[in-house]
Amino acid sequence: MDKSTDDFVQGHADDYGGQLFVWAIAVDTDPGVDDVLAILLALASPELEILAYVVSFGNTDVHAAYENIYRLYQAVGRQIASHPEDKARFPNFSPEVAPILVLGPDGPLEGGRHHAQYFHGRDGLGDVSQSHPDLNVHSEDRSSVFRGNFSVTTKSAVEVVLDLLQSKPKRSITYIALGPLTGLALLLRGHGAVVRENIGRVVIMGGALDVPGNSTPVAEFNIYADAHAANEVLSFDTPERGLPPNRVVLLPLDITTVHELRFPFYVKHIDPTFESTRKPSVASTKSPLVHFSSAFFERTREVMIEFGKDAMELHDIVAIWCALENPPDLTDNDDGLPVMSSSWAVVKRKFAIERTGELTTGMMVVDRRDDPTAYAPGSNRAQVQSLLERHHQSHGLLESIALPAQVETEDLVPPSSGTVSRTGIPCVVQTPGADALLCLLTKRVWGVDV
Ligand code: RIB
Ligand code: CA
């Protein structure tokens, strides 16, 4: 963590009564490939404490996703068993800070399930359950895998998160969503007031504003997989609904996609023997953790090369990075923007989420009517439109003067699906950069300085 961020976090600790408050995080995740790498980064990050994993459907079905937490903990446990010096590298892999593992939603609020198994494999982890059965966690091994490193519960995800929100200092918890927003929507439906009063910050990986989608031409997967939930969480028209807008930090594809782990870089610095499913990783030739990551990267690499990119996009990893470098801030108020550490920046964007479009489900319909840069200079239709609305003019004469003739006058009714968020949602537009993340990731997860 750079010095400025370190001071930033220490400064915030003072705000919470002087103790060095380790940031608590509830991770709502659909462990797939980038989720697992993101959780490895969280386990290796002293700035935060993982309070719970809410495992959700998404990249694969919820039960397969749940298994991947066990595979991940087994791999870290094997790494520490074979390299005891690495224990210090994973401060969050310890019985002293054992998170709760809870089974979250197994499907969207409405509509059918959309998984991303084409990318993440049936098991959500590049089909390692078939290609590397040594990475599977057998029932007799479970107790050793999570030997106090996490606790399991039969409580619902809503109960677990609610208990946590009410057990820690107000506004000290960051809820980080790495998958569909179903769990967060259910929490808000039942306990919105408690969430708004107690949540510190909500960091969400999801959406696509000014770039193409990755599940459809216009929709990003986490939003597409449950557009109704996203609409309930992200677009609200009164303070009594949804999240406190200035404690939300959204990371859409616009900012996450440019952060990538190029596989030639991984071969050069982490695993010289890594290739793809054509040359499966051999456990005896490398450390347990490198064997684990190489195993689940094999299919990922092949799929990404089909997409024309010999790299993995670090979507969820950027979200964890954002959360650990930008802890909750008690001065976040309803008029401004969330306080961010230096090298990070957010801007507010207004959009509505399409829930039932034949081609546009999950699209973030951006409202550019107030954006003077949306048109060529000199024809700011937003001003003309508000003039029309103000004077309740039918278009007729005024249109021929005010609107450029070639522009169709659209219906003045606001978007039919969803509600444009009243003040806009803070969206990350600047990070310390892709290289900074790569250095942090390789150092913390694999212990390699680059
Ligand atoms: O669009 C990227 C997101 O969808 C990531 O969270 C990835 O894990 C998938 O869930
Ligand atoms: Ca995810």
From TrEMBL:
Q: Which Gene3D superfamilies match?
A: Ribonucleoside hydrolase-like (3.90.245.10)
Q: Which GO terms describe its cellular component?
A: cytosol
- Domain annotation Inosine/uridine-preferring nucleoside hydrolase: ranges: 26-376
Please, one GO biological process term?
purine nucleoside catabolic process
Instruction: List the InterPro entries hit by this protein, alphabetically.
Output: Inosine/uridine_hydrolase_dom, IUNH, Ribo_hydro-like
Checking SUPFAM superfamilies in the record gives: Nucleoside hydrolase
Q: Does the keyword Ribosomal protein apply?
A: no
Q: Which family does it belong to?
A: Belongs to the IUNH family.
Protein name per Swiss-Prot or TrEMBL: Inosine/uridine-preferring nucleoside hydrolase domain-containing protein
